[in-house]
Amino acid sequence: MTTHPATLGRFFEDYAVGDVYQHPLGRTITETDNTWITNLTLNTNQNHFNSHLAQQNPITEGKILVNSGLTVAMVLGLSVLDMSQNAVANLEFTDVALTHPLYVGDTIYAESVCTALRKSNSRPYAGIVSMITRGVNQHGDVVVQWKRSVMVATRDSGIGQNYFPQVKGDPLAELAVGGGVA
């Protein structure tokens, strides 16, 4: 088993079954984050925005509970750099389990393990990467986990590569010669 350091984007050939990908970013959840997603999704459970009511809930320990939709979305987003930066399609999410409360002020991290690989039968430019992803808080408690499969482009496909536009002229050389920004 190999643990890979943070890298921007992988292609199908870069994965190995059993490898663990520790995603490089962590994110502290703010009250604003939680309130916005709660309002946006019309989630009226007051444990997400009413501190007085949350104090009565034995599960929340008197703290504001992070909306589970935000928890799932944040962990998914944290995993993109390693697991689906070069995906052409999400195929499946299963077995989502919210295993520990996440509170406003907690920091969330994510990691994934590659559980299966196969070339696509219908899309020669891609393969299927299956994984288990989990989110953990700053104490190492697993707060959410799921199984996921994505269709990821092969390196030979050219998908997701060479998209940066051709710069007209040579502004970097002009700056170096003519002065420019200090």
Descriptive notes:
Helix content is about 20%, strand content about 30%. By secondary structure, the protein is of the alpha+beta class. It has one domain (about 5-180): Hotdog Thioesterase (Thiol Ester Dehydrase, Chain A, Roll), CATH 3.10.129.10. The model has no long low-confidence stretch (mean pLDDT about 90). GO terms for molecular function: lyase activity. InterPro entries: HotDog_dom_sf, MC_hydratase, MCH/BMMD. This is Acyl dehydratase.
Question: What key attributes describe this structure?
Answer:
single chain, 182 residues, alpha+beta, Thiol Ester Dehydrase, Chain A, 7-stranded mixed sheet, 4 helices, 7 strands
Write the topology of this structure.
Layout: E1 3-4, E2 20-22, E3 27-28, H1 31-40, H2 51-54, H3 68-83, E4 87-98, E5 107-119, E6 126-137, E7 142-153, H4 171-178
Parallel strand pairs: 1-2
Antiparallel strand pairs: 2-5, 3-5, 4-7, 5-6, 6-7
Q: What's a concise summary of this model?
A:
This protein has 182 residues and is α+β, with helices and mostly antiparallel strands. 21% of the residues lie in helices and 31% in strands.
Biggest sheet details: 7 strands, mixed
Radius of gyration: 21 Å
Element-level helix/strand string? EEEHHHEEEEH
Number of domains: 1
Can you tell me the CATH class? Alpha Beta
Q: List unreliable stretches of 5+ residues.
A: none
Number of strands: 7
Pairing-aware structural class of the strands and helices?
alpha+beta
Indicate the mean pLDDT. 90
* Number of H/I helices: 4
CATH architecture: Roll
Classify the helix fraction into a percent range. Answer: 10-25%
CATH topology: Thiol Ester Dehydrase, Chain A
CATH superfamily annotation:
Hotdog Thioesterase
Shape: globular
Report, as a whole number of angstroms, the end-to-end distance: 48 Å
Note the beta-strand portion. 25-35%
